[in-house]
Amino acid sequence: SLSMELNGKALYANALGVNKIPTLEELVKNIKDEAKARGTKQVIVSSELLWSWKHIKIRRLKEVLAGDDMTIVFGVRPHLERELSMWQEASKHGFTASPGHYLRHYGDTALSDDAGVLRERISRWSAEGFPFQALPFPPEDRGIAIWDDFLNNVVGMTVGEVPVSDKLNVSLDYLAIRTLQSALKQVAESGSIDCEIKRDKLLPVKTAFAVRDAAVRRTAGVDRSHLPAFGDFLLEEDVETQLQRYAEQYRNDLVALQGISQYPLDVDRFLRRFDARRILQARNAELRDEYPRQAELAKGIARKVLQDIETPGISTRVRAGIKGSSLLRKVLRP
């Protein structure tokens, strides 16, 4: 809604086939009407996109929510964990480069002069008058869902009172990611579809989504090793130095955040989420040989993905998968 209002376009909505985009006022009114009908006085709106909002969007939201009591709750993850998650999400939207390349050229930490990513992002909301609370993600070894931890520590509800639907946006494994990125590159290189890779991303997004869906279907249940999607980052020579640097930046950022937080911050509790030793377990000697094997397997599956995608831009000869130039036959062979 805000992208359409401020920029005159909504790329992702169009890619998903959403034709009617309500205004921000309409969205808020619909939420309030539903809450009133249910007798609800407290409404939780969750969106990871709020993390990247700049002042112009924050002010617009403040205008629409004028008169309501509002608190922004930031679910804080260690910098490296969050940025690797953002790399995976970017890959699902057409990003073709490695996790290490993403961290160095697009990651929040790399783009922040003093690595104070948390303080810089949260300060935007604080400067516009929004009270905020920082909530650390629970350590993975505790086995507590993020949603339950949020309800228990922020809302004050008993864990398990609210049913949670199945995940719609699941994390991909190493084979699926390598297949996806290989397929994205092959689609662009084939010349059979009107698309291009621009700034390491396949455009248009609609085509990237079609490739993603086909890659997920083709690799479902194939990988029994459960290699982490960001495995290529773990294989970089200086990975241990990078892990140490990210840990130090995360700690420094948390300390700086204490100065603007209205709530006490237990830095040690935040730091318990980041365990470099656990991360490095995925590159042990037994698994190290599995990465190149799956990377090679991904190339073959990617060629099959090209036969599966169905978008308006694909020519008849590509759908047939037989006729066409020698290049297309090479790319599309089963």
Outline of the structure:
The protein is mainly α.
**CA(first)-CA(last) distance:** 42 Å
Percentage of residues assigned to helices: 40-55%
Coarse structural class: mainly alpha
Judging from the principal axes of the Cα atoms, what is the shape?
A: globular
The fraction of residues assigned to DSSP E strands is: under 5%
Rounded mean pLDDT is 82
- Which runs of at least 5 residues are low in confidence (pLDDT < 50)? 311-334
Radius of gyration: 22 Å
β-strand number? 4
What is the element string, with H for helices and E for strands? HHHHEHHHHEHHEEHHHHHHHHH
Main sheet properties: 2 strands, parallel
Total helical segments: 19
Q: Order the strands across the largest sheet as they lie in space.
A: 1-2
Descriptive notes:
This protein has 19 helices and four strands. It has helices at 2-7, 11-15, 24-38, 55-64, 79-92, 99-105, 108-111, 117-127, 146-155, 174-190, 205-219, 231-234, 239-257, 267-271, 276-280, 285-288, 290-308, 316-320, 326-332, and strands spanning 72-76, 132-136, 196-198, 201-203. The strands form two sheets. It has a two-stranded parallel ribbon with strand order 1-2. Strands 3-4 form a two-stranded antiparallel sheet. Helix 10 packs across helix 11 (205-219) and helix 11 (205-219) packs across helix 17. It starts with a helix and ends with a helix.
